Amino acid sequence: MKHQHDHAESYRLPVSCFKCSEGCVHLEYGNIFFTFTQAQFRAMAEVISKVYSELEAERAEQEFSHLAESLVM
Known about the structure:
Structural class: alpha+beta
Helix content: 40-55%
Strand content: 15-25%
Number of helices: 1
Largest sheet: 4 strands, antiparallel
Low-confidence stretches: none
Number of strands: 4
Order of helices and strands: EEEEH
Shape: elongated
Distance between the termini: 62 Å
């Protein structure tokens, strides 16, 4: 069985996500193991992507704000 793994080594807990030969998507985060249908995984990924984008926008805004503050004299 060929697995396509994506690992995020920088996290404190090991993270692994792959699609098995049956077409299910498996997500392992530490000692938690989730199995999703592809439709379920897409729905979860959309929600996570939306929140991730919001968090990144907030982070960028904060970084810009700190930079702007340092330029104001």
